[in-house]
Design goal:
The protein is globular, with a radius of gyration of 20 Å. The protein has 13 helices and ten strands. The protein folds into two domains: 21-53 and 168-354, Rossmann fold (3-Layer(aba) Sandwich), CATH 3.40.50; 58-158, Rossmann fold. It has 356 residues and is an alpha/beta fold. The strands form two sheets. The protein has a six-stranded mixed beta sheet, with helices on both faces. The protein has a four-stranded parallel beta sheet with strand order 5-4-3-6, with helices on both faces. Helix 1 packs antiparallel against helix 2 and helix 3 packs parallel to helix 4.
């Protein structure tokens, strides 16, 4: 073996060790039990992914993507890392890139919330903003060529970078934490879809473990995923059709979106997501992000349906990230009013979910 290859091998082993050591220093995320007094026999649990070191569910994905690329030999000690992201994935990837001493460039839509951009920069990442969100993929590929770098490509590799059979993925963590609850096998798990990686991991794990749990994916109305789920011929949205809920919903069907592992999809209006987000934030005493609100809309529908059939059981969903990144958007009434988003009636409606 040449000295160059041996040096790369040694660097790779140390890079993987650093990532695994960081994981060992981190506790698992909390599973928050939410009582629903109006619905006796039905309990809601929220997997709080905002407690990761980089503040969101995407911390798990970023770790998996780096390990996948390292073990495939795609990343070396001088590799520039590129990603196309609406923000949270890039924040987490910037964290891991800095850990390994690598340059990181995030290709983001120009509309990305400023606090997310600040967080990317805080972790040493660079920002390459594009006016048309549909161009992020091509721009990321181009930058990878120009820098002789590696495009992590979360939209392609999210569903395969995570070991869905276990290895402390989010599904395994949920079921382990539910083991001592009154209804340890959830009736439903509810999540969103940005890359599709989380729904693929959860859906495959449910099937592999032979659980009776069903998977519901909540999707913004202006996203192609729920349309593709209903009609596989639908592969993209028309120009100008886009959701304001960052992190979930896409204008095209991403390679990591696996509809066959999903039992049900629900389309959610942006105003409903914001209203549900505001309502849950008041209930928790701290702010949550918009995609968590999207999940809550689907949860409320499932709770009503279960209650209508006199069913009991548990529902588990994901608190995807904290709301501090959205102070200038989802928590800014003027920002919402300028976009014609009337969230107030939904906040009132969703407050009933937790009412005594």
């Amino acid at each position: 073996m040449s000295n160059t290859k041996e040096a790369a091998r040694i660097w790779r082993a140390d890079a993987i060790r650093r990532i695994e050591a960081d994981f060992n220093r981190s506790a698992d995320t909390h599973l928050i039990r939410m009582e629903l007094p109006r619905y006796p026999g039905i309990t809601l649990y929220l997997k709080d992914e905002s407690s990761h070191p980089t503040g969101s569910l995407k911390h798990r994905l970023a770790r998996s993507l780096f390990l996948y690329a390292l073990c495939n030999g795609w990343i070396g000690p001088d590799t520039c890392i590129i990603e196309a992201s609406s923000g949270s994935t890039a924040v987490s990837e910037a964290y891991f890139a800095r850990m390994l001493g690598l340059r990181f460039i995030a290709v983001v839509p120009a509309s990305t919330a400023a606090p997310k951009l600040d967080a990317i920069r805080f972790h040493g990442g660079e920002i390459h903003a594009v006016d048309d969100p549909r161009t992020v993929y091509d721009v990321a590929h181009r930058l990878a060529r120009e820098t002789d770098g590696h495009y992590l490509d979360q939209f392609t590799y999210a569903e395969r970078a995570t070991d869905w059979r276990g290895n402390n993925n989010i599904a395994q963590s949920i079921f382990a934490q539910m083991a001592a609850e009154a209804f340890p096998i959830p009736a439903w798990i509810v999540c969103g879809a940005g890359t599709g990686g989380t729904s693929a991991t959860i859906g495959r794990y449910i099937a592999y473990q032979r659980h009776a749990t069903r998977l519901c994916v909540a999707d913004p109305v202006h996203s192609v995923f729920h349309r593709h789920f209903a009609d596989p011929a639908m592969a993209s949205l028309p120009e100008g059709c886009a959701s304001c809920i960052e992190g979930i919903g896409r204008p095209r069907v991403e390679p990591s979106f696996i509809p066959s592992v999903i039992d049900r999809m629900m389309a959610v209006e942006d105003a409903a997501s914001i209203g549900a987000m505001r309502s849950l934030s008041r209930r928790l005493g701290r702010r949550v992000g918009g995609s968590t609100g999207t999940n809550l809309v689907a949860i409320a529908r499932l709770v009503e349906e279960m209650a209508g059939r006199d069913e009991t059981g548990s529902i588990v969903s994901i608190l995807c990230d904290g709301g501090e990144r959205y102070g200038c958007t989802y928590y800014d009434d003027n920002w919402l009013e300028a976009r014609g988003i009337d969230w107030r009636p939904y906040e009132t409606a969703f407050s009933r979910l937790f009412a005594q």
